[in-house]
Amino acid sequence: MVGKQAHLDPFWDNLDWTLGQLFMMGFDGTTVTPQIRQLIEQHHIGSILLTAKNLKSAEETTRLCYELQKCARDAGHPVPLAIGVDQENGGVNSLFDEIYIRQYPSAMGIAATGSTDLAFEVAKATAQEISACGINWIMGPCLDVLTNARNQPLGVRTTGDDPQEVSAYGVAFMKGYKEAGLVTMGKHFPSYGNLEFLGSALDVPIITETLEQLSLSALVPFRNAISQGLDSMMVGGCAMSSAGLNIMHACLSDQVVEGLLRSDLKFEGVVVSECLEMEALSHNIGVGGGTVMAVNAGCDIVLLCRSFSVQKEAIDGLKVGFENSAITIDRVRESLRRVLTMKSKCTSWEKALNPPGISILSTMQPSHTALSTKAYNKSITVVRDKNRFLPLSNIIEPDEELLLLTPLVKPLPASAASYALSETVSAGSPEPAVWERSASVMSGERVFRELGRSLARQRNGRVLHTSYTANGVRPVHENLINRASAIIILTADANRNLYQQGFTKHVSMICNMQYTAGGERREKPLIVVAVSSPYDFAMDPLIGTYICTYDFTETALNSLVKILYGEHNPSGTLPGTISQSQKLHQSRQHWLVEIFNDERDANALDNLIKAITESMPPNQRSELASATSNSFLLHHPEVIESHFVVRNSTTQALYGFCSTYFFRATGTGVIGALFVDPARRKLSIGHSLHNRAIRTLLQREGIKRFQLGSRLPSIFLGIPTGHGAERKRLRAWFANIGWNTALSRPVCSMVARNLSTWTPPEGMAKSLGSAGVEFDLVYGWEYSQAVLDHIKTSNRQGLAEVYKLALADPGACGVIRAKRSEDGALVGTVVLYNMDSSLAEFVPAMKDTGEMTGGISSPVISPAVGEYSTLLQGLILLGMRQFKQQACNACILDYIDGDGNIDGLSSMGFDVLHNFEEVSCDAATWTMVPPS
């Protein structure tokens, strides 16, 4: 082993040999090609990436690995090559062999089994198989947390959206790989689990989470894997953009590699860059310059997947960088030491030149086959079966017809290299036969045809099988649906292939509208099977029977057939937060919910608020800071309020509190707050309070819609979204009890400080002067008619009530009006209030500043006005001037739409105080989520 400061053999004084160890390269071909031979012999590259395009069978893979190592040994390499593959299982395997290489569930499928012990055994078996073929480096585990699980391309390649669960399974996989003698690679640092995609191939996917947010969630599995001995780490090519962070490519940034990964997370292993052939990176920077930047950032190995000309460009670029002193010899030797240390753990010339291959694979085959079957049987998850359609013998006679509907799916790329191959194949490459057999990109059509045959073999009646596309439900589908006695629909990543969602819902509607010969309505049995991402219909109760397989390999679908026909009882559970919600439902307690009594409960509510604010991390400020029990009591004549508590009747302590308001003016029922004692979460207290609140609001005469978040009182404007992992937990919790969080609206509160030294942005006064409006400040009820008529142009909840409070309190509140110069028409208003006003009682942030503060609330701009942002800034600017004259040193904006106004207000001196997601839904369509 070569230690961090160990003396290097004089052999490595040769720069060409040293630089060669800093590259990992792939190639096209199933034998040693002239190109890869030249890279090994003349450029001395030290690591090889093998992908599906290189690997035809276990026997040929063994021969290829031997030939590569022999080429290196004959060329004078002092240490063997590191040979790596992606072998994640599920739909992402580089090596496939029907006889000797077993298929195992994807990472998320393994998590569905609920067993980290099984994860270890599967990882160990996977590593043993590829190690037997001569591979010594596995490109795994995948440690990404699916912070935004519904829209990410990683899908089932990671275990889910719970960082602790991802961490537990990631470490189990890693230990299994190590047990079999391979070195490991965590990916894709700092996380591919919540990327935003801008559209073009030249646009780099972006991580928008702050380092603080990443630390609370996405970095947890990486941190734990590092502490358990992870050997290497792949750093992604994504961009990072958030407060104080602006990085074009993570793997080229010393802030990410040396700062975050090395210094903060204490990683001492080998850092591998994302493939520098990715189009966005090579187009924006160039491969030669990118290679220099990657090494200087702290990458020990630069990955280049397949293009020989680009690979030579990278080698030349690194040499030029060294010659120009852009890279130091100490930097290069630092990486060399790490690479040699890693190689010493997994290979030697004796091992590299004697891969056991088929001889040992044949002995492992029986036990690994049994392990594969066990893993798949335990992973298949029946999420719902409301009408007991399973097994199929419950719903269909032996001689009746069964219809199987399957989507036309694109192959799932295993890596950047296999993606490049998919482009070649689609362009007419002579390789589709290899592609077809590769489990890294399972052909859906071939596997689905076999599924139809397997279903048919189990029964006497016919199995009708056809595919569906983005063309929707066609006459041929309708005819088959009418013929069949039961229907099975497969979906594969329907959240990213929306035609599948539409098709499935259309078929569901047809099945629900079936009638008997006597004219009675009779639902036709429909079973929906998600064969990739489990999120397709996980939260859609209208799909009554829903099964998840987590991949669509033949082995997975064989286990599915056993479950459909009752030969095996399913035991899998959904991953991550959905799984936790499911488990919670199964043991849900029903708490006694009582109406809040001010005299009895006020002190206890104050204590509960204090417990919640004190439980927050030191660097976070609770939305409840400075709130009291009085902050929730409006006593407004046009608002019906009902508040609820779960309490200990013996000690009088409150365990949970929920406030509700019914705004008559808009017919809106609002949940304005819902919180639970931090020491008593996950006990169904929140669910009990929420159910009581919704049932109460449903009884209000004139109820039209529900809303999470309230402008008045202005404490929680919606689901809090500023606390990383907590944001994800809250969104999942509310989604699970029926709220469509995907249709949320961003809102926030903001604060401007140091008004005593504040000055308006240059040019803003001039811009307002040319807007054709005049402003004035009015107080009192005599101005109410025009103002209240104006705000009717907006139907947002709580507006009328805020303005009426302000107009009725002229000593502490006012309204700034904007009138069109040409005709005096009112086109904009905003409420001003001070700390002595009745409004301030319902805005705890006013007191939380700790200094003299003014408040600005509820701007309303006429829809007919084109210059919305200019007018909004004008109204707020005049409010700030007014408060500055009154010797206030801070100003609160208690409610601002967060989807386009933030930048303009930030330029005026405002900072975001708290972020929220306001969620609304139609009360007529609300479905109570029943306790399980």
TrEMBL record:
<dbReference type="Pfam" id="PF00583">
    <property type="entry name" value="Acetyltransf_1"/>
</dbReference>
<dbReference type="InterPro" id="IPR000182">
    <property type="entry name" value="GNAT_dom"/>
</dbReference>
<comment type="similarity">
    <text>Belongs to the glycosyl hydrolase 3 family.</text>
</comment>
<feature type="domain" description="N-acetyltransferase">
    <location>
        <begin position="638"/>
        <end position="708"/>
    </location>
</feature>
<protein>
    <submittedName>
        <fullName>Glycoside hydrolase superfamily</fullName>
    </submittedName>
</protein>
<feature type="domain" description="Glycoside hydrolase family 3 N-terminal">
    <location>
        <begin position="15"/>
        <end position="341"/>
    </location>
</feature>
<dbReference type="InterPro" id="IPR001764">
    <property type="entry name" value="Glyco_hydro_3_N"/>
</dbReference>
<dbReference type="InterPro" id="IPR036962">
    <property type="entry name" value="Glyco_hydro_3_N_sf"/>
</dbReference>
<dbReference type="InterPro" id="IPR017853">
    <property type="entry name" value="GH"/>
</dbReference>
<dbReference type="InterPro" id="IPR036881">
    <property type="entry name" value="Glyco_hydro_3_C_sf"/>
</dbReference>
<keyword id="KW-0325">Glycoprotein</keyword>
<dbReference type="InterPro" id="IPR050226">
    <property type="entry name" value="NagZ_Beta-hexosaminidase"/>
</dbReference>
<keyword id="KW-0378">Hydrolase</keyword>
<dbReference type="Pfam" id="PF00933">
    <property type="entry name" value="Glyco_hydro_3"/>
</dbReference>
<dbReference type="InterPro" id="IPR016181">
    <property type="entry name" value="Acyl_CoA_acyltransferase"/>
</dbReference>
<keyword id="KW-0326">Glycosidase</keyword>
<dbReference type="GO" id="GO:0016787">
    <property type="term" value="F:hydrolase activity"/>
</dbReference>
